[in-house]
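Q: Can someone sanity-check these two? First one:
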Amino acid sequence: MDPLGVLEAVVALAIYPGGVFLAGLVVFAGRLARAPRWHAPRPRELAGLITIDLAVAGAPLPASPAGTLPPTAGTAPDLVVVALLVAASVVLVAPRRWDSRRLLSAAGATTAAALAVIATASLALTTITAHPGGEVAAVRAIAALAVLVAAPLLCGSPAGPQPGRRAALTGMALLGLSLLVPAGLAGWAAVAGAAAAGGATVAYVVVVSSTHALLARMQTLLSAACGALGAAAIVVVLVAGRA
């Protein structure tokens, strides 16, 4: 990777869209949700914080430095790498018991994301978000919704004193919502797009924190919704392929 690529990667990890930007969203959402004071992160949580930061650094948000990394001299943000980092973060910070509902939620969100790759024939997140066509837009929207529905089941409640869970939930929400932000924004439009994604992420985390007891009772319904969204993404791609 050339020096400029290294600098852009450092900015993506330390400032935006990871680092300071992600930390600000986590803290602000916690304040609004009146979450209890965090305890010092344990080693597993610290590892989870690092992995979710690495994942969010590849989010295709407006003016993200990661989006300009040259494929010939660096590494373009890759959906598979981001998904693996998110999975690692979830495993590190979430409740350790994996029942059928959590597995179905993970499968539904993964399927929807995989269909976005198939629809665009690309693993690069920047290509997926910039690809034209109603089919791809529909699959992106389904994938984003699947991630948002699955996140509370996978990460666990963010209402407690565990910083890792709230960070993982915030990171997943930001990644999901980044799929809905129009590609190619520049100048003040890019600032507005990033602010909108950040604001929506904070609102999402606050709602999940405030309704965690209700969401815990709705796990079966939420997992079924994730499975249905994964199936819907398959249908969209199949129908578009026959058109």
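And here is the second, same format, sequence then tokens:
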Amino acid sequence: MTASAQLCLLAYLTLTLGLTLGLGPNKNMGFTFLLPAGSTECFYHRTAMNDSMEVEYQVIAGSGLDVGFILLSPTGHRLVSDFRRSDGIHMVDPTVDGDYRLCFDNSFSKMSEKMVFFEVVINNQNSKNGGQDDWLETVTSDSMVDYKMEDIRARMDSVHRHLEKSHQVQAMLRAFEARDRYLLEDNLWRVSFWSCVNLSVMLTVAVVQIYTLRRLFVNTKQVRT
């Protein structure tokens, strides 16, 4: 199996990350894509004022397992600039209203394409507080004050945070698994190839030795009677 076929297979196996991470209430996004050799790919993500944004990326497959990464604010200011790194985690707090640009650079590699996984996590405090206040007002209006609403809300917030953290950890573990699988398959191909080469050389040497020894004991002189 060629390297391009392996990268396409890994992209197919990990594509579900991008379809599941972007469905949460906080507009989280996760995506796995192939970055061609000698090119740069940019993605945009919209945020609101005074949110917090966490960006995490990792190179899953490709020669060197490294890319360049640039994070630009909606005003065009460069917030993060990484050069030839295999992974990174960056936090923007607070954010401004607009589209942040995430660019992945593989221009330094002229032959090898890279598979990159990245995740954007938005913590929208305004929407959380707004929804909780509406729910609290609704319950209070129904005279259900005996349920200790503050305690229930604190527990729900804790459960929500733990679920989000578990989701992020599982996504990163899938990315690590995909990268390890690629490395194992690549190493297996190399070991198998050189094992076949060594076996061929050994068989060739054995045949040559047998032929040489037989030639030494063959009597080429003809006896005349």
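A (reply): Looked at the second one. The radius of gyration is 29 Å. The longest strand covers residues 52-61.
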